[in-house]
Design goal:
With about 300 residues, this protein is an alpha+beta fold. The model has no long low-confidence stretch (mean pLDDT about 95).
């Protein structure tokens, strides 16, 4: 089948590769423009752009599907459009021009967590289960009928990064199955049912740790913000990232935000049980083991807030 593919980050790459490997004709790959990365702000192609070029596919770089880009994409005569985390809206007339319209691989169980950060929001909210849906793209945000679904339990040590990585692989296989059904004319879509929750793009405030909350809530928030934007607190007015932590329910309680070394573990107090800090990043420093940071701190107690 002749397909237009729109995607940008690493989580979209498995889907592009899987569709290509399944023998579909990828007419063009739409991805966001090169972005400045790193301290030197070097312009860098998106992961999808790099993968598409490696596969010898036509790449269209655009942050918005404006009239000029739309006209270009219409010229490819695709039968189906596929979106996986592109980062822009597909509007008319492009939305309805392919014979089969557009489908979207979304990393949640819709209608829960419609929006840009579904996995991060699911973990941060303490959800027990999440998954991925392939649905018909419609003008309303993530509201189309669902062609295929997979479910996955959220493990106690899952971070947004690890869970997205797993869902991107499993979701790619789901997407290929749905596209095969669409090509064969056997695909069936069912309307979304249940309460709608939204998953807007994450902000820095989302990543700030509130030590006055229960340990389960703090732990979920940290894992949901890892690796980006990165959960943080403040120590002496400077940002202090918590890159890896785990609950320590066996340890004696500490006051919320109080950090101490107890029996070789660096513990931070919450509303109930402490959290053990494993990997941290003080302001202006590289990531390090929490134990190494504590030895360099040279104090008996630190207050974070």
């Amino acid at each position: 089948m002749k397909i237009l593919f729109a995607g940008t980050p690493e989580v979209a790459v498995p889907s592009l590769r899987a569709l290509h490997a399944a023998g579909h004709a990828i007419a063009a790959v739409v991805t966001r423009a090169d972005a400045p990365l790193g301290r030197k702000r070097v312009l860098t192609p998106s992961p999808v752009a790099s993968a598409a070029e490696e596969l010898g596919l036509t790449v269209v770089k655009a942050n918005r599907l404006d009239a000029v880009v739309t006209e270009q994409l219409l010229g490819y005569g695709a039968e189906l459009g596929v979106v996986v985390a592109y980062g822009g809206l597909v509007r008319e007339p492009l939305l309805s021009t392919p014979r089969l319209g557009w489908v979207n691989l979304h990393f949640s169980l819709l209608p829960r967590w419609r929006g840009a950060a579904p996995v991060q929001r699911a973990i941060a909210a303490g959800d027990a289960v999440t998954g991925a849906d392939v649905f018909q793209l419609v003008p309303e945000l993530d509201a189309g009928d669902v062609f295929g679904r997979l479910e996955r339990t959220i493990a106690a040590d899952d971070t947004a990064g690890s869970l997205l990585g797993a869902l991107s692989i499993d979701g790619a296989a789901l997407l290929v199955d749905v596209v095969a059904q669409l090509e064969a004319g056997t695909a069936l879509a069912v309307p979304q049912t249940g309460a709608v929750t939204l998953a807007p793009k994450l902000t820095i405030d989302d990543a700030r740790i509130d030590w006055t909350l229960p340990i389960a809530t703090v732990d979920s928030r940290i894992r949901g913000m890892t690796p980006e934007p990165g959960a943080f607190t403040e120590i002496d007015g400077a940002r202090f990232k918590v890159l890896e932590a785990r609950p320590a329910p066996d340890a004696a309680p500490l006051e919320p935000g109080t950090i101490r070394s107890v029996d070789g573990r660096v513990l931070a107090g919450t509303a109930d049980a402490p959290l053990e800090l494993r990997q941290v990043q003080p302001a202006g420093k590289t990531p390090m083991a929490a134990a190494d940071w504590w030895r360099g701190a040279g104090t008996d107690e630190v207050i974070a807030g």
